Amino acid sequence: MEQKGLLIVISGFSGAGKGTLVKELVDRYGYSLSISCTTREPRPGEVDGVDYHFKTKEEFERLIDYNGFIEYAQYVENYYGTPRKFVEEEMAAGHNVILEIEVQGAINIKKQYPDAVTMFITAPSAEILKSRLYGRGSEDEATIDKRMKRAITEADSMPVYEYIVVNDDLDECVDQVQSIIIAEGSKSKYKESFINEIKDELSNM
Ligand code: 5GP
Predict the structure, then answer these.
(1) Quick check: 37 and 126 in contact, CB under 8 A?
(2) Domain 7-34+96-203 top-level CATH class
(3) Per residue in 71-109, pLDDT tens?
């Protein structure tokens, strides 16, 4: 198979630091980040078109009808979905694309794109996870409670992922994820044209 872009799926507990990790991967290595659509309210500081495409329920459901998502899911009473056009175009252009999505979405993507690289990001412990959620200060106690309960279910899905990455120190976590991406992209199945080229060169020497 010829190398297109890799589809890199990053999931993890709410509060595991996925957002910061993904931002670092984009800044340091220039990966293409898919911006999801959601029906949830913007948090303070979030910008439409940068953090998410914020949609009404009606707008979101229309996009579902038009086959506008490669996957979508409901999470804590809101819709979240990955826009089809951006992902397909970026991959076709040979760019590595990052999706930061929840478990149902990751399972769905893996069915459609078996070569997608799936990683689950976790805090070192449940205690640290909870304190990071409180530290964020953007959600009320009831929402944090829902997210912690959801984490219990999400933990059941951890074995579905190919890689589990513990985010204790951000730099180490970024390095670990980058190593995984390099290893995946080095698989011989993506190197067919390179192999053929070097074979040609060798036989013409
Ligand atoms: P948050 O509200 O904290 O930004 O996101 C809640 C959850 O939705 C996170 O686990 C996040 O990874 C997930 N999420 C964000 N965008 C998408 C998406 O397009 N599809 C799916 N399935 N999950 C998403």
Answers:
(1) no
(2) alpha beta
(3) 999 987 899 999 999 999 999 999 999 999 999 999 999
